[in-house]
Amino acid sequence: MAPGKRFALLIAGAATVAGLWWWLGHRGPSDTSWQGYAEADFVKIGPTQQGLLTAVAVARGDKVTAGAILFEQDDVADRASLAQAAAQLAQAE
Predict the structure, then answer these.
(1) What range does the domain containing 80 cover?
(2) Which phi and psi angles does 68 have, rounded to 5°?
């Protein structure tokens, strides 16, 4: 092989290595991805007493903190029971 061709191949190889080195060093960080699965606890939440729900404050998949209000319930039956208990107490006294 002629010395001129060897020099040209050497320069082309050096430019390729330098370009590859620069590209690997200056590209942005790659996205982190994971293989596998996640474990979670499935929790069903609902009212403890019968009644109509008047408002729902969360949607499926929402993250909820401890003590957060999830829903509101119609309290007409509860107020009627309280009034009845108060009347029975007053009668008993």
Answers:
(1) 48-93
(2) -70, 150
